[in-house]
């Protein structure tokens, strides 16, 4: 049974409309990377109050209360819930890793974890994630975001061949190739 996906143009219109509504109603843009920093800050302070002496950690508590009482945390919970419901309704909800011929699943998980840690660290250095930067910055016509997005896609075109075998496998084709 073929699983249907949204038409990408329709998805783009829905995403753009949602972004407009979020800006209009909440005066916020999209972005979720701050959730993980906030959760880490909350865990650190819950385990030892002396973490509040650290200016970076304390910045998450400047309005008092919990570091988790923030727009991005609520948004991230909504993204997880919405993704689950969407996959369930589309018949694509399954617990299994994507496999690639000749490339072990454990190695894919290792590379995904390493890549995820690098991305999360870099989002803290730049104070935001690529999706938030791309969507919010392009919606507000930020010149820096346009430069950033060209750099991201240009880098992907240049470096993606290095990681191709992780996605399509490492088995050699028959017939002399």
TrEMBL record:
Mainly localized where?
Answer: membrane
Q: Which UniProt keywords apply?
A: Cell inner membrane, Cell membrane, Membrane, Transmembrane, Transmembrane helix, Transport
- Where in or outside the cell is it found? Cell inner membrane
Question: Which family would the database say this protein is a member of?
Answer: Belongs to the TsuA/YedE (TC 9.B.102) family.
GO CC terms, sorted = plasma membrane
Pfam families given in the database record: Sulf_transp
Membrane spanning stretches: 71-93, 105-123, 143-163
Q: What membrane topology was assigned to this protein in its record?
A: Multi-pass membrane protein
What organism does the UniProt record list as the source? Nitratifractor salsuginis
Question: Taxonomically, which superkingdom?
Answer: Bacteria
Q: What is this protein called?
A: Sulphur transport domain-containing protein
């Amino acid at each position: 049974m073929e699983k249907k996906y949204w038409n990408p143009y329709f998805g783009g219109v829905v995403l753009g409309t949602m972004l407009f509504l979020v800006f209009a109603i909440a005066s916020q843009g999209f972005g979720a990377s701050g959730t993980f920093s906030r959760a880490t800050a909350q865990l650190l302070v819950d385990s030892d109050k002396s973490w509040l002496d650290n200016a970076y950690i304390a910045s998450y508590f400047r309005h008092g209360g919990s570091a988790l009482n923030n727009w991005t945390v609520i948004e991230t919970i909504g993204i997880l819930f919405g993704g689950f419901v969407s996959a369930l309704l589309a018949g694509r909800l399954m617990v299994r890793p994507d496999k690639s011929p000749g490339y072990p699943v454990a190695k894919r998980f290792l590379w995904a974890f390493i890549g995820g840690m690098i991305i999360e660290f870099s989002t803290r250095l730049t104070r935001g994630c690529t999706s938030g930067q791309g969507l919010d910055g392009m919606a507000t016509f930020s010149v820096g975001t346009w430069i950033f997005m060209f750099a991201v896609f240009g880098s992907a075109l240049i470096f993606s061949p290095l990681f191709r075998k992780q996605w399509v496998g490492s088995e050699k084709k028959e017939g002399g190739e």
